[in-house]
Amino acid sequence: MNRIPCARKLLLWLAILTFMACGTNTQKNPQIERPPLSSEVAIFEHTIRIPIGYFLLARRHSERCAVKLIDHWTTEGGSELYTIYDSYFSKHPVAFISPTAANYFRGELSFPKLVGIGRLAFNFGELDIRCGSMQMHWTGVSWIYFHHSGHALGDYGIELAPTPWTDIAEVNFNDPRLQWYRYDENREESYVHIDQLWEKDPARDPDP
Predict the structure, then answer these.
(1) What is the C-alpha radius of gyration for the chain, rounded to an integer number of angstroms?
(2) Can you tell me the distance from the alpha carbon of 97 to that of 161, in angstroms, rounded to the nearest whole number?
């Protein structure tokens, strides 16, 4: 039986790890002209920021998802990020989601210190919001993307709608005031205070 010498095994593993490090889609927060206020919704071409405590709705085909980020904290001088969230899911195009054990999930998102050195540094945190069969990338505090962290930027059929709702009983996917956004590389960044969200369309009438 042929055996691979230890040195060759080590080189093989280093090559695999290097490939993984280079190929992993680790994205940072979007480059922005100014940081949004804690009470602002920010809408970019590939991500939406929703303030802590408010629902962001998602849909893909017949699937429906409601996500609320409920707490956030940092450790190690701010270098490690953590967020707790609630998600509610339906695989059917319902208007309302009943908060039952079958469709409710509470999860923790995390961005701990990288493990390793240089190109061989890895992040072993949880970077995706889980909502039934839907998963959406998170990059700290309250930035939520239109795709899974393992995917490149692009349109994967997910649409997001920010809301001023704080209680799942308020959520109505058929509310005509909802403004749905999809990945759009040509969309300009815009900001709007959460209390003014439905007074205008922030994508067409951004705050100064």
Answers:
(1) 19
(2) 16
Domain housing 183 = 6-196
pLDDT digits (tens, 9 = 90+) for 95-116: 999 888 779 999 999 875 555 5
Q: Is the dihedral of CA 127, 77, 69, 189 positive or negative?
A: negative
Report yes or no on 107 lying in a domain.
yes
Of the candidates 198, 170, 181, the one whose C-alpha atom is nearest the C-alpha of residue 88 is 170
Sequence-distant (6+) residues with CB within 8 A of 95 are: 172, 173, 174
In a domain, 169, yes or no: yes
Number of H helices, E strands in the chain: 1, 12
Residue 204 belongs to some domain of the structure: no
Count of domains for the chain: 1
Written as six digits, the tokens of 19 are: 């490939």
CA dihedral 73, 79, 85, 89 (to 10 degrees): 170
